[in-house]
Amino acid sequence: MGREHQVKSVTIASGETESAVVDLAYNSIHGLIIPTLDSANLTFKVAENSGGTFVTLKSRAASNISITAGTGGFAVSSEDLAALAGYRYVKIVASAAQTADRTFYYWMKE
């Protein structure tokens, strides 16, 4: 049998810019569904454990790994999320506080 797909969700709460932590353990990311947003760009934070110190994920050139999300309502592919490979504990960060809860969905494969 092939590997099973699963969906993991994470939410940025109303009034906040940072999501709760999502555990991406032992899965490969195949996509991310981005909900409708208050206009924002998205970056990512990672840590060594769920209660660890989260740091901004950057490229070798020291640029934030980001998605220009605008008002959201679309999905991105695994190519756009390649920098997350190997990180287990991840948070999504919006550049602007959200006026409602915003739930993101990672499309995963075990």
Give a topology summary.
Elements lengths: L4 E8 L9 E2 L4 E20 L7 E2 L9 E12 L11 E6 L7 E8 L1
Antiparallel strand pairs: 1-7, 2-6, 3-4, 3-5, 3-6, 3-7
- What is the number of domains? 1
The CATH class, by name, is Mainly Beta
Helix count, DSSP H or I runs of 4 or more residues: 0
- As residue ranges, the low-confidence spans are none
CATH architecture: Sandwich
* Major sheet: 7 strands, antiparallel
Helix content: under 10%
Within the CATH hierarchy, at the fold level, what is the topology?
Jelly Rolls
The H/E string reads EEEEEEE
Mean pLDDT rating: 94
- Total number of β-strand segments? 7
Strand content: over 45%
Helix and strand content put the structural class at: mainly beta
What does this structure look like?
With 110 residues, this protein is mainly β. The chain has a single domain (5-109), classed as Sandwich (Jelly Rolls). 0% of the residues lie in helices and 53% in strands. The chain contains no helices and 7 strands. Strands 1, 2, 3, 4, 5, 6 and 7 form a 7-stranded antiparallel sheet that branches. The model has no long low-confidence stretch (mean pLDDT 94).
Characterize this entry briefly:
Helix content is 0%, strand content 53%. It is mainly beta and 110 residues long. The chain has one domain: Jelly Rolls.
